[in-house]
Structure formats: C-alpha cells, structure tokens
Amino acid sequence: MQDPEAEAPADADAPVELSEKLTEAVAAALEQGDLERAASLAMPLHAADQADLLEQLGREDRAVLVAQLEPELDPELLTYLDETVRGEVLEQLGPAQAGAAIAQLETDDAIDILEDLDPTEQMALLETLPTPERAAVEAGLAYPEDSAGRLMQRDFVAVPEFWTVGQTIDYLRANPSLPDDFYDLYIINPRYEPVGSVPLSKVLRSRRGVLLTELRMKALHLVPVEEDQEKVGFTFRQYGLVSAPVVDAHGRMLGVITVDDVVDVIEEEAEEDIFRLGGVREGDVFTPPMRTSLHRAPWLLVNLGTATLAALVIAQFEGTIQRIVMLAALMPVVVSLGGNAGIQALTVTVRALAMKQITRANMLRVLGKELLVAGMNGAVLLLAGGSLVLAWLGQFDLGVVFGAGIIMTIIVASVVGVAVPILLDRVGLDPAVASSVFVTTIADVFGFFAFLGMAAWYLT
Amino acid sequence: MQDPEAEAPADADAPVELSEKLTEAVAAALEQGDLERAASLAMPLHAADQADLLEQLGREDRAVLVAQLEPELDPELLTYLDETVRGEVLEQLGPAQAGAAIAQLETDDAIDILEDLDPTEQMALLETLPTPERAAVEAGLAYPEDSAGRLMQRDFVAVPEFWTVGQTIDYLRANPSLPDDFYDLYIINPRYEPVGSVPLSKVLRSRRGVLLTELRMKALHLVPVEEDQEKVGFTFRQYGLVSAPVVDAHGRMLGVITVDDVVDVIEEEAEEDIFRLGGVREGDVFTPPMRTSLHRAPWLLVNLGTATLAALVIAQFEGTIQRIVMLAALMPVVVSLGGNAGIQALTVTVRALAMKQITRANMLRVLGKELLVAGMNGAVLLLAGGSLVLAWLGQFDLGVVFGAGIIMTIIVASVVGVAVPILLDRVGLDPAVASSVFVTTIADVFGFFAFLGMAAWYLT
Description:
The structure is a homodimer of 460-residue chains.
Chain A: E1 7-8, H1 20-31, H2 35-42, H3 47-56, H4 59-69, H5 76-80, H6 83-103, H7 107-114, H8 119-128, H9 131-141, H10 148-151, E2 158-160, H11 165-174, E3 184-188, E4 194-199, H12 200-204, E5 217-218, E6 223-224, H13 229-239, E7 243-247, E8 253-258, H14 259-277, H15 289-315, H16 318-323, H17 326-354, H18 363-393, H19 396-426, H20 435-458
Parallel strand pairs in A: 2-3, 6-7
Antiparallel strand pairs in A: 3-4, 7-8
Helix pairs in contact in A: 1-2, 2-4, 6-7, 6-8, 7-9, 13-14, 15-20, 17-19, 17-20, 18-19, 19-20
C-alpha cells in the first residue's frame, strides 16, 4: 500500500516529517485561533504524520483542525488513525463524506476501517459506497476477523504458464487497470492455481523471447484464505517472504499479501503479548477514560480475588505472626522475589512460544533449564536474604527460614512460569492470557504458606 | 534476502514446512542411530526450518545432525540460528568451513553473524574470508551496532536522472553482477545523491523512450547511515515503505534497506520491550543455565533491595500489627492491587512511547486520563474490598481503612506508572528499563505506609 500522496515529481524536496516542535506550533496556532496557519502547517505532512498530529491534539482542537483540512483531506489519513480517534473523525465527516473517502482507499484498508465499527455504523457507511467497492469490501468482511482474507489485496498480476517475457510486458503495458505497484508476477495454471512467481527484476533483465517458466521461479508458500494473521506473520518472517499468494480451499488464487501489510500484523501481535502480560485489554492511550476503566477493572477484580486467597493463607498463621511480628515484615519480600523470578521465566516462555521455539520435542528440556536457573538464583538469594536478616535482626534461625522460604518460592513460581503458558498453548489458548495472574497467585499463596508454615514449625 | 534455496523450477512442489511430528521423527531417528534417515528428513526443509529443528534438539543430537548435514549445509542456515546455538555450530564447523559458509552470504547477513562473536572469534573468521567479502564486512562492522549501516545492503541499482526506460532496461540486461532481487530503481544526481525512486512495475509498464524522470517517482525518505535501527523501523512502519536509500553525512547514497530486513528489527524492538518489562535481559531459551542465571540474578537482587525497603516500612508498624494481626493478612492485598494497576498504566505508557504517541503536547492529557481511570477503578475496588472485609471479618472500620488504602495506592502507583516511563524517555533512556521495579516499589512502600499508617491512627 504505497500512499499516493507520497508520490511526487523528481524535483520534490524531501518530505516534511512530524516533530514535537511542529505539533506544538500547530497547537499554538489553534489556540490563537489562527486556523489557516494551523492548516498550512499540517497540510504538507504525510497522511501518517497528520494522523499522529491529530491524535496528539485535544478533542476540540482536533475537530477544528479536521474541519479546516476537510476540503483537501487525504483519504489515507483514516487508515493511520487510532481506532478511537478515527471514530470521532468519521462521525465529524458524516456518512456521505466518510463513505466518499473510504471508496478511494484500497480494499484492505477500507475493510480495516469498517471492521472496527459497530454494525449500524458499518451498514450506514457501506450504503454510501459505489457498488463495486461495496461488493469488494463485503466480500472481505465475510472472511473471519484477523484472517488472511482480510489482509489480502485482490488486485494482483497473474499470467499463464506458457507466456514469454515479451507477452507479459505487452500485457502489462496494455492494461492500465492493473495495480500500481507490485513486486512479483504470479504464474497460474488453467485451474487458476498459483504454480510459481517471478520477481519483476528477473522479468526486466530477460530477453523478450524467454518463457516465464524458464526463469528460475521462487517456490511458493501458499496462504489459505482462512489462516490466522498470526500464522501469516510467522510464515513471512520465517521464510523472509516479500509477498505470498492467498488461495481458497481448492487451491485457487484469490489475492496477494505483501510484506508491508505483514509489518502491521507483526507489530499488532507483539503488542498483544505486551498488553496481555501487563493485564491490559487494549493499549489505546486515546480510549476515553470510562471505557479504559471498564477494560481494566475486571483484571483488578480478579486480582482482588487471588490476593484474598493469599490473605486467607496468612490469616491461618495469626498466632505465629502475633508471636513474631517481624514475620509480617519479611513475608512480602519472600513472595515478591518468588513472583519476580516467576515472571522472568514466564516472559521468556511466552515469547519463545510466540516464536515457536518450544515444542513437544524440547519442552521438558526448557522446563529442566528453568528449574536449574531457579535453583541457582534461589541459592544466591537464600544467601543474600539470609545474611540480610542476620545483619538486620541478628537472628540466625529467622534468617534460615527466610532464605529457605525464598528459594522454595522461587523454584515453585519458576516452574509455574514455564508450565502454565506451555499448558495454555497446548490446549489452544493464548499463553499470554492470564499467565501472569497464575504465576503471582501461586507465588503469593505458596510463598506465604511455606514461609509462615516453616516459621510456625521451626521458630515457635 | 531471498533464500537461494527457496528458488526452484516451475514444477517444484510446495515447500515442506517443519511440524512437531517431523521434529519428533528426526529426534527418534537420531535416537535409533539412523543418521541417514534423520538427514533425509531434515534436508528438504527450508534453512529457517532446519534452524528451528536444530534448536529444538538436545545439544548432542544437534551436533550429530549438523555433522550429517555438513557436506551440503546451506550457508543461510547460520543466519536463522539463535545466537547461542549458532555459536555451537560455528565451533563445530571450525574457522575454515564456517568462513567458507559466511563468505557465501549477503553482506548484511555476514555482519549479523560476526557482530555477535567475541573479538578473537570474529578475527579468526574474518581472516578466512576472501578479501572483497572481508572488506565489505569490515566496512559494515565499522558502523555502530544497531545502526542503519549494519542493516543496509550495499548492492543496489542506481541510474542517472537523464536515462530513459530503454537505456535502463538495456543496462539491467547487460549487467549480470547487479543484485538478484530488487523492487525499486534509485535515481541519482551527479553528486551521487538519491533524488527519487521508481518502482520496477512502473518501468516495466512504460515505453522504451520515456524518461525515468517522467515517471511519477516516489518521494524518498532518506535514512542517515548512523541512524538507530529502532528509528529506521519506525520510519518504514509509519510511511509504509518497501525500501529506502541510506546516505552518508553528505547525502551520498551508500546502500538500501528493504522492508524484509526491517521486519526483523520490528520484532527485535518489540521483544526488547517485552523482556525489559518482564525483568529479563535476553530471552534466549537456548542460553545455557549458568549464563541465564547470571543475566537474571541482578534483577532479583535489586528486587531484594526494594522489597527490603518495604519491609522496613512494615517494621515501623510492629506495634499496630501486634494489636490487629489481620492487618498483616490484608496489607499484601492493598499493595498487590496498587502494583497491578500501576503495571497496567505502565504497560500502556511504555507501548505508546514506543509508538511515538506521547509527546510534550499531550503528556499531561495522558497523565490526567490515567489519574481519572485510577480514581474510577480505585473507587470500584474500594467498594469491593471494603465489602469483602465487612463480610469476612464483620469490621466496618477495618473495611474503610482497607478500601481507602486500596484507592490511594492505586492512584499513586498509576501516576508513577505513567510518569516514570515518560521521564525516562525525556532524558533519553529506554522507558521500559527499570520502570516496573519503580512502580512495584512505590506501590509497596506507599501502600504499606498508607494502609498501616491509617490503621495505626484510626483503629488503635
């Protein structure tokens, strides 16, 4: 998806990039009511930078600037906006104008925008689209969310196996309706199955009489149209692909996915892992506070439940704590260390699963390694923590119990940190979901129990 | 970087992809000592899959399989291996054979392998390379780590501004030493400065007499050779680029970076954030236990220090806890909720900073929003937590103190979760580094102090 605005005659200057200074200048101009200056600063920017600029302005300033830019609004702008801000802008434009902008986009971009809307808004916009665009978008929306069908571009160049370089070049020259930019030619058989691809550079460098099949073609990695985008991203990264054909259940070619679409997918998937590990459902800094609160509160309520479990364990040892109050001060240290060691093991495991580095063949080896690391680090912290207590409180026995509590909790939490994501992955769930709550709960419950239990048995 | 092995004649079957079954079949064959079967299963795989297969085997099995594959080892395999495993394989091959393999790689891949080695190993391998390859690799290694200079490909196609399509095609056909695959032609002026680029699809579709400058060229996003790869990744993603020219301080063209190189960078950068947030220095599941332990122990020792700070706070309230032992059971709940809310705010902020969504212009707005969210979720948990204590222990006053402790800690931890990464970013540090330790320490220290302090003042 090359932005048409990014094309310019040969003597065009380097494009203006967005800077903090520029954002502040626009904000200042808007504050002073100098709308023309604000627009003249924003106008030369690439649509992606205009989107960032709008996102960084307050809600009112944003509406004012959009109104100012509206007559010459680059439709691509919509594709770069964050979901929340895009909703605002679409509402401001109204269905007719929003639809006119969306009709100018490539199909995959239009789908990207429409799939985020609620059904009534989606329908209202679809109705404003010209019939061919509408049909293409609806066909895309019929594929499952996050599938290859929604990522693919339907415009591609496919030629029969028996053509020569010359025939191909003549065909390309004679058909202005073919896509603007493409990097590979696909060769299809009479059943419309892709059988190979030839990079354009090879076509350009061959004589007209050469058969396409004589050029050394790249082996194809076919992408089934229903395949999840995460798998698509993995395939591109794994094999260093630039583009891949998308096929239906019968192996017939439906479209093409190019690496620039996949860049966004890879970002999204990594972001999903980051957010899930952080207990956040979405990371949209521009989501209104109320919705953000609704997204995050359930996680905190789950956390209240698991922390209460840990509190119940502590409550069992009321008598012990009453006798040795310092246990109350030391016990959070035990569970904190255990939790952190567990999160370390968890982070590495979740990432390795995403990279498909852990399979049945090596999962016991990975678990064994983490156990060894937990043992070694546990021993280091046993010594450090034990000495600390000895130095601080002068109590050798308490130091021993503290150190023993630490190493036991670190080992248990680390095993859980490796085992839980692997188990979730085995049963087909996302290993990042809920893993961290498991790990910290186990570290808390086990850590309090082990430390206070040993103290009750050994010290009192 | 297309893998030469991925090229096949037109009638080649779809490539074999690695599956768990296949990995297990290879492992089983190795166990039975059927080396030929193991090799015959591994051989048809893409080099990237061979790398994954080797990674998933145990150390000894790996060495045996490498020895078996060695006569026909695809040099690309080395580029796909994880750093630790690659070190083992290079050692097994020995400098002469390893050097011969590296000499066959593209320069940027060779640099990628050599930059990870220690200086003596690096020197030993460099000495085995033929002079031109060695010079190219050394020139690449002279650029800073993680800079555009190390990512770029030095082979590119640049043509003068006054050429026609016909001249260009003749030049391409006459020069077999030009790179195999490329997607854009660069147009340079007499000072060797890139002034524009033309996608190959445009060249293919134009008549021979057309001047290149008449084709609508893409505006260029020039990448300075010293630019950090993170910035390069951002530029590609932001503007949807497929390739970009790399220039020296005088604006002269030195090389080209293509989007497939950037895919790896984007992955790496996202991975770095995941690891730093998880308190892990590197996520290599294949790193030996001893080194992993050394990487992770410092973080746990820092954690021991910060948790001890929190313990010191608790110790100040020994008397209060002795009187109301249930405080000891409830206080971990307060800090756990605060910590989790803080980590949520932190996760979103770190990610938004990486996406350059937070700048001076909107940082106060972001902080204000998180404050609002913290207030709302704090109120929800105040009610839920307070009721829980009332139901469990039947103590209204304790419920009030507990709820108040929760909301205060959530608010403080959330502000810290937003402010710390923004401050780190402002002073030029990575916002993901050490942010989570700050947030949990503040949640612990403040939470214990607020909860126990209120209890001491209000309940006793």
